[in-house]
């Protein structure tokens, strides 16, 4: 252990510099802490909202996917899924290609559900990563020796 | 940790922390207070995961040290114009010029040696505690202290 009874100990024992006002410092800190609290609450609300949206997207994707697949499976073969007597060429085109269109809609909803799943996974992993790396504000190291 | 408890603990420690940072920033009050504020905000953000109440002060100093190092790193990447501005700030920071001799001596020390010396003499921390704060081995801290003391002695005598 190093001895403290030297010139440096004397120098530092008298070290008592004048600082800016304590009350002002604490006031500024409190203002910042309140801002931090506000941002934290806002972020939590955003995360909660996005979680609900992800769950809703997931449920919707699964339900629509299941219903559409079940609906399509009732119609065997390659004929149209819906059949309406109309003269409009646009509607006729839709009816003729209803199987393909249905499959496209199912695919879109399934993709939506998969994106929901990926988002949920990313959110969970980000949450655990941020919890793990919290503490010690920055881990900078510099080479000075 | 609640905001109230954190504020309560910090109000006790802030003066000592600011004095340490003022010495670490070699008399630049604005920079020292900025680092102190930033460190305390970081500490508050991390305080929900903190439960070792016995070492709260050392924990604060560790965060303050890391924040100081981050500041030094960002100052290094500043443009020459920004650099010149910093130098001007520093020269006018300590308006009363108290402890100017000490600050000049400390300015000649690398950050790690400066930190080790200040934690040892101002805070009275042991080598083990300093090693934990600056995230070095005890041998490295011993060397930093030894070199720092030699430099300061030569400069101050």
Give an overview of the whole structure.
The complex is a heterodimer of chains A (145) and B (157). Chain A is mainly alpha-helical and 145 residues long. In chain A, 70% of the residues lie in helices and 0% in strands. Chain A is rod-shaped, with a radius of gyration of 32 Å. Chain A has one domain (26-131). Chain A has 4 helices and no strands. The model of chain A is unreliable at 135-145 (pLDDT under 50). In chain A, α2 packs antiparallel against α4. Chain B is mainly α. Chain B has a single domain (3-156), classed as Butyryl-CoA Dehydrogenase, subunit A, domain 3, CATH 1.20.140.160. In chain B, 77% of the residues lie in helices and 0% in strands. Chain B is globular, with a radius of gyration of 16 Å. Chain B starts with a helix and ends with a helix. The model of chain B is unreliable at 79-95 (pLDDT under 50). The interface between A and B is large, with 37 and 64 residues.
Spell out the helices and strands of chain B N to C: HHHHHHHH
Low-confidence stretches of chain B: 79-95
- Estimated share of beta-strand residues of chain B: under 5%
Helicity level of chain B: over 70%
SS content category of chain A: mainly alpha
State the gist of this model.
By secondary structure, chain A is mainly alpha-helical. Chain A has 4 helices and no strands.
């Amino acid at each position: 252990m190093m001895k403290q009874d030297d010139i440096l100990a004397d120098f530092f024992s008298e070290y008592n510099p004048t600082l800016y006002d304590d009350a002002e410092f604490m006031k500024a800190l409190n203002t910042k802490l309140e801002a931090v609290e506000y941002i934290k609450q806002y972020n939590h609300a955003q995360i909660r909202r996005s979680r609900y949206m992800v769950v809703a997207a997931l449920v919707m994707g699964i339900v629509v996917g299941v219903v559409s697949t079940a609906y399509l499976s009732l119609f065997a073969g390659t004929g149209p899924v819906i059949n309406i007597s109309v003269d409009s060429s646009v509607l006729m085109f839709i009816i003729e290609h209803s199987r393909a269109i249905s499959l496209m809609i199912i695919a879109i909803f399934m993709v939506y559900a998969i994106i929901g799943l990926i988002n949920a996974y990313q959110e969970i992993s980000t949450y655990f990563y941020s919890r793990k790396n919290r503490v010690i504000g920055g881990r900078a190291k510099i080479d000075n020796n | 940790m609640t905001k109230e408890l954190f504020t309560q603990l910090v109000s006790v420690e802030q003066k000592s922390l600011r004095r340490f940072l003022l010495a670490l920033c070699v008399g630049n009050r604005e920079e020292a207070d900025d680092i102190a504020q930033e460190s305390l905000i970081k500490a508050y953000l991390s305080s929900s995961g903190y439960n070792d109440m016995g070492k709260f002060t050392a924990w604060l100093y560790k965060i303050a040290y890391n924040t100081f190092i981050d500041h030094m790193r960002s100052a290094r990447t500043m443009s020459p114009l920004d650099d010149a501005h910093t130098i001007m700030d520093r020269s006018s920071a300590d308006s009363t010029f108290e402890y100017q001799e000490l600050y000049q001596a400390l300015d000649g020390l690398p950050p790690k040696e400066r930190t080790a010396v200040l934690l040892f003499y101002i805070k009275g921390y042991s080598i083990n505690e300093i090693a934990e704060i600056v995230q070095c081995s005890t041998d490295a801290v011993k060397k930093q202290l030894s070199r720092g003391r030699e430099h300061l002695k030569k400069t101050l005598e």
